[in-house]
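Thread: Modeling a multi-component assembly for a lab meeting

Hi all, long-time lurker, first post. My supervisor asked me to bring a structural picture of a complex we are working on to next week's group meeting, and I have zero experience with this. I have the sequence lines for every component (227 residues in total). Could someone generate the structure of the whole assembly? Inputs are pasted exactly as I received them:
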Amino acid sequence: DQQVKQNSPSLSVQEGRISILNCDYTNSMFDYFLWYKKYPAEGPTFLISISSIKDKNEDGRFTVFLNKSAKHLSLHIVPSQPGDSAVYFCAASDAAGNKLTFGGGTRVLVKP
Amino acid sequence: DAGVTQSPTHLIKTRGQQVTLRCSPISGHKSVSWYQQVLGQGPQFIFQYYEKEERGRGNFPDRFSARQFPNYSSELNVNALLLGDSALYLCASSRNRGSTNEKLFFGSGTQLSVL
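Re: Modeling a multi-component assembly
Sure thing. I ran the full set together rather than chain by chain. Output:
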């Protein structure tokens, strides 16, 4: 029972263009959403988050959009850079806040 | 300040053996969580500890246990290892118990291989 799904296992984009990563969730109790980035041999690194009371949060080149009615969120990276090549995980938590539920990840390759 | 540190970085065990993984949280963080990441999947929640007490448990068998020490470091123990326990084990810390809007900071993980 996957409560958080990332349906695209991989994404390839040209340097300078926009990367759009998608995430769907099924649990309506989730109220906080996060994106993590993971390089090989390293742990996940926090990238950006959004609370369910917002529909957009921006931090530099990264923007996360939340559509609660559709139970969908997306991460936009613009412009994409070669150093952005990594695996990106979407994660969600509920009000109890004692655990994160992760999606399966999307591997992004940014070509120079 | 040091981040979350985990030891060992790599470990090879055989089926039936027992393993202990260690984690030191970021200074000032009182909560430690453990996650299992199988190749090609996202991390799966195993345990959360806060102030030395278990505050959450994922869908893992009783072979998995953990504890938190007075200095907030933590150990994850896995008994009677199975081949399917081969995974990257991630430790994460947070300042508080984990209310909404709290980020987790992850260590680099322990790669466990069970042969």
